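Appendix B. Chain record.
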Amino acid sequence: MMEFKSTERPSPIAGTWYTSNKQVLASEMDKFLDEAKLSDDEIQGEVIGLVSPHAGHRYSGRTAGYAYRSVKGQERDLVVILSPFHQFFPGELITTAFHAYETPLGIVEVDVDMLSKLAEKLKNKGIPIHQISNDPEHAIEIQLPFLQRALKGNFKLLPLMVRTRDPIILQTIASAVFEAIKEKSFLLVASTDLSHFFPLDIAEEMDAEMLRVIKDMDPEGVLFAEQDGTAAACGASSVAAVLWMALKAGARKTYILNYSTSADATGDSTSVVGYGSAAIVR
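Structure tokens predicted for this chain:
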């Protein structure tokens, strides 16, 4: 039985990974969204999933803006965010112990009822969801200000942090999540950066390969590229699971919207991190 704290999860990264000033943050988010130029006919279909980077807004905010521009002004009942967990934890699947996340832009409620039902279903399949308090993980939270400014109206959050790279476990998670959310108006978000700390030319080659398999809607290819080193993504498992969910939901195409690296912000091309954004449609 899941138990949730009565307080909101306080942000461990506001003021470092992004500004803690509400007005400045709202303005920065709006600028990222407005500067992401997507023509009305550039994306054909209903966007049901996004791939978005999770570095500090200074580094990857512009690329993330393209993902969220594709759903700007839309309404969703539920946003499912899958991310990696960058610290050690003795479990394959993790979620928050709080009933809500807090950002400088306000509170994002967690769908605790759906999360509890999902946990029960996955427990019966031998995949427990572990709750964690006081986690320093940034990969889910970094997406929230974009969602708060891009989506119209309120939405609830289903946050999942994934540590396993096992395709069977990931497909089981994807199937269980899809069955839980399929009657909702939902948005799937895979939070991931691409290659880490390669010279720019090598990073661009590796990232092009990862974006290719994402565009091909090939979850097994995403996991294999990460495993054999031809490409890299810290959230490869999250991307694969979101692709499996999206395919179950009738997705037919993925659009790669933007690509950048940390060199665009720092000017240092000797050791870069890659960032890509994508929209999955049905």
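Further analysis of this model is presented in Appendix C.
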